[in-house]
Amino acid sequence: MNKEEYISRIGIDSNLSADLETLNLLQRHHLLNVPFENLDIHWKQPIILDTAKFYEKIVGMLRGGFCYELNGLFSELLREIGFETRIVSARVANGKGNFGPEYDHAAIIVAIDDTEYLADVGFGAFTTEPLRFVLNEEQRDDTGVFRITQSDDGYYEIAKKNGDGWKSEYMFQSLGRDLSEFTKMCDFQQYSPESHFTKGKVCSLLTESGRKTLTDKSFIVTSGGEKTETPIASNEEFDRILMLEFYIARPQL
To answer: For 5-59, how does the pLDDT look when each residue is reduced to its tens digit (9 = 90+)?
Structure first.
């Protein structure tokens, strides 16, 4: 990995230290410059859990990726800078009170001195900066208020405040995992007809004023709390907006 090229890819050109200010800066800039996208799945380009391949795609080709790629490579960058990190397995909430299987999602725990933080650049519309890994404390982020709790079975659950209640995002264990342990679920995500990633294309990026998201059906832009939605009428229209807004071109197969 060329650390300087990766840092430049996310729009940072200063010397960095392994402290909280730097961690916050890195996560925010990563989200502003590297999209969450599943395009290779629909372009029949296999996703292999190899950080060298992640680097070639995200830095060399100016692409994005999904959680295993984005957090897998971001963790390596953090280590290059001097942070202590570990990849953790998360189970994503399905909105019906249940959670997906183990290795459904990959996130990062970062240790700075005596405090740990949950960092995540691979979950789409989530926190813009890392959350302190503390229990039962409301933490305010640009995107909302979050809280981490622990259940009797040892899982930690992260939820976002939703009116008078809380909406679960995912649950995870603190145990560090090797990237190779996610292989089976990565293959499920990209090949199974039951995976939501195989059901349609998505490319989404945080912006300074909100977020922009392109799917097969629409291009949605939120800015300052206002939302505009433009229907996508064809593959050609999808490809045009993908290049115009995200600078990504469909590969010539």
So the answer is: 999 999 998 778 999 999 999 999 999 999 999 999 999 999 999 999 999 999 9
Dig out the tokens for 172 from the structure: 């995870």
Query: CA-to-CA distance for 86 and 240, rounded, in angstroms?
Result: 38
Q: Which residues contact 88 (CB under 8 A, 6 or more apart)?
A: 106, 107, 108, 109, 172, 173, 174, 175, 176, 177
CATH of domain 3-197: 3.30.2140.20
How many C-alpha atoms does 209 have within 13 Å on its Cβ side? 7
Q: Among residues 251, 89, 79, 99, which one has the least CA distance to residue 183?
A: 89
For the residues of 153-175, what is the DSSP string, one character each?
Answer: TS-EEEEEEETTEEEEEEEE-S-
Residue 114: count other Cβ atoms within 10 Å of its Cβ.
5
Residue with tokens 């807004």: 245
Neighbouring residues of 193: CB distance < 8 A, sequence distance ≥ 6: none
Q: What pTM was estimated for this model as a whole?
A: 0.94
Nearest to 104 by CA among 120, 93, 114, 117: 93
